[in-house]
Each structure stands twice: as structure tokens, then as C-alpha cells.
Amino acid sequence: MKRLIIAAALAIATLTACQPEVRQVKFTDKGPAVTVQSVDGLAYMGGSIAFAVDITDAEFTLSTLKVELLFDESVVESTTIRTKEYGVYQDFIRVPLYAKIPDGTATLRFTAQNTGLGITVVDKDVDIKRPDFDKLYVTIGGKDLEFPRVDKYKYALTGTFPADASTTLRTPKVNDRGDVVTLGWSGSAINASETPIPFKMGAAGTYTIEADLWELTASPLGKGSIDLSESNNTGVFNLVPDTPLLFPNIPTIGSWELDYDFFNVTNDGVVTFKAIAGLYKLRVDFSKKWIEVEAMENENDRAELDGTDPEAIWCIGQQFGKPGIGPSWNTTDGAYCLAQVAPGIHQFSLVYGTQLSSGFRIKFFHQKGWGRSDSKWGGEFKSYAAVNDETGLFDVASTGDIAAASGKQLEEGMGYRFTIDITGGVEAAVLNIKSVKLTEGLSISVNGVKAKGAGDVYKVALIPLKQGDALSISGDAGIDGFVPDPDFITPDGKFNAVDGNYAIELHLDATKKNVEFARFWRVDDAGNNVNLEGGGCYFMGGTVAFIYQNADVQKWPGIVNWPGTGGLQMAQVKPGIFQVSGYAVPALEGVTPYARWQTEAMNVKYFYQDGWGGEASGDHVLTDRALELLDPNRGDVGNIYLKEGVTLEEGAFYVMTIDFTGCTISGASLASGKEVIDFYKK
């Protein structure tokens, strides 16, 4: 019988066995005594191989048993068993299911090792077959059905099925133990799993489902089936308005906060497309539960407003984004496509507080990038034939930039929709602005004061707090898994900062049922962030984090960086003394809450207002213990660095305080005196 050979393109992962932990090692070239008591002589791809191995050693204690399955001397599956005692070890090893691999003979290799590093290797042959039974079994609409073979490796069944006929494929019993092989869906092909294959049509009726166990393909996958997965999260699709979209790899899609301009979600969780028919690129962000949509001219090129169909308009700016605030004036990750909801009508909606924040400024462009001299209309909307702002909250500058009007405040949790009408031509474009209620939101309160918001962010605009006050979150969201900010909240749930007015931003977890963490700001009586004299000191830097070090892992941006407005406000824990603290972790670790410091680098600075202006000058004093960790020679004026050769202890908790008690403060500046910086491991 021929040996199994894998196609050259098949990537094989190599696993490395653990090395035994010992204090003194006596080496030997003799491995343990290995007797393979039993092993399945026949197994099916997608199934498993059972084995039992007796291992003893006359001289040494045992270490590990590594079991590998080889197709043509290439390891395709591996498992390692810790062998603490002499005796028989029983287990299973999975047989992978690959496309276009015929029946053949594989090698099951047993490698036993003792603590003297002696190794014994025993090989056993196992016949491997691709499933090709006369029939398989499926369950559709609650009914168990036979799925007959119509050709080698090919199966088909015609019947009256619901629109969603998703099911796994199950083989007859493959051995005396009664095992069956269950085949499911990887997101792009049939595989060995319990994930149903998304057999779907646009409506219930009579149709045929088919599966090819040689090619590992299946059909139909439904009209409007968006077959994207975490391993294959981007694709280009022809989409039609009002057509239900099927997401076979996102069973909870109905609970996602999807883009209000492109998608509609019914109470039953059915997702439909709202923009005009055309070619669109979809990119699924599973961590943020979001789908980014871009209009396309073809499979490779984005649509633009250039006088030809299809057309698209794009938005770029600062302090805005979808699903949350994105990078400022960034043409790659901070440029968003408007939804063309009718011919010549393009709309863009943002929720204030989550997708639009204080200091925002946006502008509309004809392409995903800056204006071009070779563009028919200059590549950007510098002016409009008319602006109709129903809210009276916005200012549209002569440059085309849109910002909040002077003295106006947008409402937390309210949606604002910008619609550009070019039905009369680009030169006659009309901008319409109105408020829209995009989400109902949850009812959440802090100490009885209601928070406003939508999605996963809710904000209390102003609440008076006293140091030592108990903090209570009530309403629709619980606090299971809540991690308190170590600077603003004590371990027993008391407020840690000095008395004053504060704004609180509550961030919900992925379930939107519990508050995961909270951010605090000292504000004045009008709810505005205060300057240093008012009790506000702000922290920015390329190595300090808001909550987590890795922005890709968590929904809140990780590294604070240098945003201008929106930096981390330090907690004033005593009059004139501001504090920021947290754990030290490797860069972009992304797991430890309040991982505010990187172990091997520091580049931070404090500011006297929320944004640029008054800032640390470098003319400060370091305490003796801070001198052990921080560079007294500074480098950039006012920036704080680790001392050369210093590495913070991974997992340790570090505290930095800025003491202004010896200074005279005037607004957002120091009139006299030097601040004292302390930095230490707690």
C-alpha cells in the first residue's frame, strides 16, 4: 500500500516536547522499555487513533511520551503525555482531514524519554482512509436524514428544506467502539469539527445540498452568505439592499453593534444590507464585534467620486471613528466610507460619546486619502451649495471642515447623521445634518446619577464626589469582572481622589451586561476638563497604557501615545499631588488590566491641561528612589525616561507621583517652584 503523501503547499506545524525540570541529571543513551499494547490498525481522516502504551525503566524515572502521526515522514499531528509513573498510558490522536489526499498508510511514532535523556522510538503502521461511505447522516429542521453518495467522495440530497439547513455530516460507525466521524465547517471548507456546514438559501423551499469530501467543498452557502472567519476576515462581495445576510461563522451576529448606515438588524437578529447594490469589501473585527464596509470599483480598487460609477465618498478627521474613536487625520485606519443609501445620496452617522468626542473635526473627501490636483473636483468637499443643519450644533468652515459650533455641546448618546446629496452634481452638493436616535441604550447609574451613552460606552457628565465616598453602579449593567482603576478607586470600592466634580466613563465588556472598567476626569461646574490650577494633570506617552498595552486585544486603545486632547488624567490623591500607577508588562502584552508601564522602555510626559500648551519643562526634582529607575539627564525637555540599563520587573506594580505642593500654579502654568517626581515599585 502506498504511503500517504501531502501536497507541497500544505503547511505542517512542528511541536516541541517539554524538557524535564531536574536539578541533577545522570545522562544515559538507553531509553525506557516501550511496549505498544494496542493501536488502531485503521482510522479515518477526520477521526482519531486510539493507542495504549506500556512504559517502564529499570534505572531512571520517566519523563515524557511523545506521539506523532506522520504522512510520508511529515508530522501532521502530535501530542505529548507527561509520564510520571511506570505503567500503561492510553489516549487518542487526531487524524487531520486534508483536501485531495488519497487512502494510504501512515506512521504512528511513539517517542519515550526518561530523565536521563535516554530515548526509545517505536513506529507502528496505521491504514488511513478518506471517508467515502455509501451514505452519511445529517440533521435538518430537527429531522435526521440520510445523505447519499452520488459519486466517489460526493454526496447530494434534494428535499424541502428551511432557508437555513445548516448541519454537520456524520459517518456510520467506523470501529468496534462505535465511534463516528463528524465533519463541520472551518469557515471556508469542510473540516473535522462540530461547527455546522452553512447550507443555506435565500428562502425555504425545495433545493439540493451537496458536499465533496475530496475537494472539501459544500453548497449552497446561501444568497448573501458572508463566509468570513477569524482566520479569513476580509472579502469582497456583491451585496443587494434588503437582502438577508448570512454569517455562518458568526452565530451571534444579531447582537453585534453593526454600522447603522450599512446594516439593519431586526429584533429576531436578521441582518440586512441598507446601501445600494454593488461590490463591497467587508472586514470583520471579531474583537470589536464590528464589520468595516468599503465600496469597491472592482475586486482590488476602492470606489471614488470621479465622475464614473460606482461612486464613493470618504470621511477623515480627528476625535471620531467607527466603531470607536480612531486615529486622527489618518488615511489608512482613520478613513471611513459613507453609505450610498440611494443614487447620489451618501450618509454617515456617528454617536456622540462613543464615535464622536470633544474636539472633533471631520471633512469629506472624494477618495480614501487627501485631495488630488488631477481630480475632476479637487478630491475633497471644500464647500457646499447649501448646508442644512437641523441641530444648530455644527460649524462648517470655508475649508469644508466640520466641527462643533462655538459654545454648543452635543448630547451624549445621541446620533448625528451627515448626508451629502450630489444628485444635482458634485458642484451642487448639499450637506444635511440632523440628530437621530440610533440606539435605545441601557439604564446605568453611578451613585444614583444616570449615565448616557450607547454601545459599550456610557458617561456620567458631572458628578460631585468626595474622597472616601463609596461608589455604586446600578441599573441594567452588573459589575461581574469589573477591574477598578488603582488610582481613582481603592480596593474596597471607595473613591481615592480629592473632593470635586468628576466625569466618569463606563466601559462595558463584550457581553454588554457588565461594566469592565471606568475612566475618571476632574471637571468644572460646566463639565469641562480642568487645567492644573483646577485640579487636572494629564499624562501622555508612547509607552504608557490606558488599560491594556495591546490595542488589538482590547476594545479600548492600549498605548496612550500623544493624542493632544484625550490623554490619561492623573488622579489627584492629595492636594497638589497627582498619581498614575499600574503593572509593568512587556510591550503590547494585552492581557493584564492596568498594565500602564512597559518593562524595557519609558517615554512619557505630563501636561497642565487636556491637550497641548502648558507642560513639564524638565526642571523638576527626582526623589532618591526615583533616581534608581529614571534618567536624571532626561533627553527631550520634560520627557521622562528609564535610566539606561534599567528594566522594570515584569508583573510588579509601580507608582509615579507628581508633587506640586512646592509650586505656585497659575492656570495651566507654573509661576514658580519645582515639581517633585517620585517613582517606585510598590
Explain what this protein looks like in three dimensions.
The chain is mainly β and about 675 residues long. The chain has five domains: about 100 residues, Immunoglobulins (Immunoglobulin-like, Sandwich), CATH 2.60.40.10; about 80 residues, no CATH class; about 200 residues, Immunoglobulin-like, CATH 2.60.40; about 90 residues, no CATH class; about 150 residues, Immunoglobulin-like (Sandwich), CATH 2.60.40.3620. A six-stranded antiparallel β-sheet has the order 36-33-34-35-37-38, with no helix packed on it. Strands 42, 43, 44, 46, 47 and 50 form a six-stranded mixed β-sheet that branches. Strand 4 and strand 5 form a beta hairpin. It is globular and about 85 Å long. About 5% of the residues have low confidence.
